[in-house]
Write a structure and sequence with these properties.
This protein has 101 residues and is mostly helical. The protein has 3 helices and no strands. Helix 1 (2-32) packs antiparallel against helix 2.
């Protein structure tokens, strides 16, 4: 049962983080050179991209490990809850990265 939770969390988090990553990629030209930007150079976009990639990998791994922590009656529901919270964490990370740049 724990494997079902872990796999559900892994796949759902990968989908959520992937969607958010591609949204960040599409918005990066606007966010980098926007008004009040502290770093309009392309290097800042590369730095933000690397942080976002590392964050996406980290939340997917955290979701997978969190799926093994507790035995539950409804594994798919638990996996989706883990994926939801990990995706929210990735969203917050992306907001912080873009605010700092």
């Amino acid at each position: 049962m724990r494997l079902h939770v872990a796999l559900t969390a892994l796949l759902a988090t990968a989908v959520g983080a992937g969607v958010l990553f591609f949204v960040n990629s599409a918005l990066s030209p606007v966010l980098i050179g926007g008004p009040g930007s502290t770093c309009p150079q392309p290097d800042c976009g590369l730095g933000a991209g690397l942080w976002l990639i590392a964050g996406a990998v980290a939340v997917v791994l955290v979701a997978f490990v969190a799926g093994f922590l507790r035995h539950v009656e409804r594994p798919v529901r638990r996996g989706l809850w883990i994926a939801l919270w990990c995706t929210v964490i990735y969203l917050l990370e992306s907001i912080v990265v873009w605010v700092l740049i």
